[in-house]
């Protein structure tokens, strides 16, 4: 889904429509986030019709991958049926939303300033009424900041769900009011596995051997090779420190008891060069992802950066094209299901609303999204903890 166009719920009363035209001017179109890899690359949006979705998928496909012989009578012994091959999954789509309230003084000052500005717009510029423009401009900036903040928090929530699923093979949520746990079933041996050559804080590790060993295991188990890797810059900066790369340079390891650092002797050699060598040798493409969201405890003045994915791991995923032999549905490896909302004119994706009914002197603006990620094939992923 490239974008979601927002509309007011229909039908809209004439009085409400007139009031909204002179209200706070909310943006009517919101596009999916482009700086988070969760929605843009791992689990893109998929429109569905209901909050409670039942989806069909195939667990592993046919047992041997070959077309079976078929008897003339389809019910004879040569026709095999296995209920475990085809199964169903269910997903409940959660409504995530935020709102901001504006008091009577906020709204009335803005509207009075807006009306006054409209009335004097054709008069002499020498009139000392420039403060009117500043008042309306400041409040509009405040609205824009709040709208952007609500949207950012929604994007962060989506990213948190998708990356937590990759991190833990499930989603565990508890805010004190709502609590749920979803398990996607990646085997324990494929989660936070140790590299075969040892951790990467030494000089004897073998990243090419580790990745090829992982892919050999995945291919032997599932018939799939994982060709996409997401990790931190910290992990990528360790690859070139392996003794195997030092030997590749043709230099001796030490001279007179002093260890030689090839990064300072050879132009163009370093982490990026080592990464390119590993990608060519393994067929796995690496992507750096160090994004964070910020939080602050109640009463504290200190902001904390929270990573979406751990800094010490590599997350291996299949390319979308690799799933065609396994699954022919719209979901594939993963999708974020999103369903219609009345304030989005019964379209899926992001929606927003304005409310003046509860208190005629208070204005409420909100932004929301009905969405939840599903990973029917989480077993076709692998996480490797390479640093302590």
Brief write-up:
The chain contains eight helices and 19 strands. With 388 residues, it is an alpha+beta fold.
Shape descriptor = globular
Helix fraction by DSSP (H/I, runs of at least 4): 25-40%
User: What's the alpha carbon Rg, rounded to whole Å?
Assistant: 28 Å
Annotation, overall tally of beta strands: 19
Poorly predicted runs: 1-30, 124-132
Structural description of this entry:
This protein is of the alpha+beta class. It is about 30% helix and about 25% strand. The protein contains 8 helices and 19 strands. The strands form 7 sheets. Strands 3, 6, 16, 17 and 18 form a 5-stranded mixed β-sheet that branches. It has a 4-stranded mixed β-sheet with strand order 12-9-15-19. Helix 3 packs across helix 4. The chain is globular. The two termini are about 40 Å apart. The N terminus is likely disordered.
């Amino acid at each position: 889904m490239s974008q979601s166009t927002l509309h007011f719920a229909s039908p809209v009363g004439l009085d409400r429509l007139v009031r909204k035209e002179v209200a706070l001017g909310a943006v009517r179109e919101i596009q999916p986030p482009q700086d988070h890899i969760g929605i843009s690359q791992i689990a893109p949006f998929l429109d569905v019709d209901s909050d409670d979705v039942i989806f069909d998928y195939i667990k592993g496909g046919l047992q041997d991958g070959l077309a079976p012989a078929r008897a003339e009578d389809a019910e004879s012994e040569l026709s095999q049926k296995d209920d475990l091959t085809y199964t169903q999954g269910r997903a409940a789509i959660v409504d995530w939303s935020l709102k901001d309230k504006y008091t009577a003084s906020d709204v009335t000052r803005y509207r009075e300033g807006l009306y006054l500005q409209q009335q004097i717009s054709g008069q002499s510029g020498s009139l000392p009424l420039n403060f009117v423009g500043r008042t309306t401009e400041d409040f509009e900036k405040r609205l824009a900041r709040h709208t952007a903040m609500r949207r950012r928090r929604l994007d962060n929530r989506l990213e948190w769900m998708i990356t937590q699923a990759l991190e833990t093979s499930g989603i565990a949520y508890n805010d004190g009011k709502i609590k749920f746990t979803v398990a996607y079933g990646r085997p324990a041996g494929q989660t936070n596995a140790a590299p075969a050559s040892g951790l990467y804080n030494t000089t004897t590790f073998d990243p090419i051997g580790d990745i090829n060993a992982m892919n050999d295991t995945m291919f032997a188990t599932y018939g799939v090779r994982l060709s996409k890797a997401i990790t931190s810059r910290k992990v990528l900066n360790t690859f070139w420190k392996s003794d195997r790369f030092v030997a590749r340079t043709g230099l001796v390891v030490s001279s007179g008891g002093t260890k030689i650092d090839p990064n300072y002797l050879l132009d163009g050699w370093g982490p990026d060069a080592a990464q390119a060598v590993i990608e060519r040798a393994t067929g796995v493409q690496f992507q750096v992802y160090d994004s964070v969201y910020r939080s602050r405890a109640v009463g504290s003045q200190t902001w904390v950066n929270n990573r979406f994915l751990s800094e010490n791991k590599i997350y291996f995923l299949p390319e979308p094209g690799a799933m065609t032999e396994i699954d022919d549905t719209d979901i594939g490896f993963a999708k974020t299901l999103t369903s219609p909302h009345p304030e989005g004119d019964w379209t899926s994706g992001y929606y927003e609303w304005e409310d003046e009914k509860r208190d005629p002197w208070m204005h409420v603006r909100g932004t929301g999204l009905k969405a939840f990620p599903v990973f029917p094939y989480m077993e076709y992923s692998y996480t490797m903890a390479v640093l302590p």
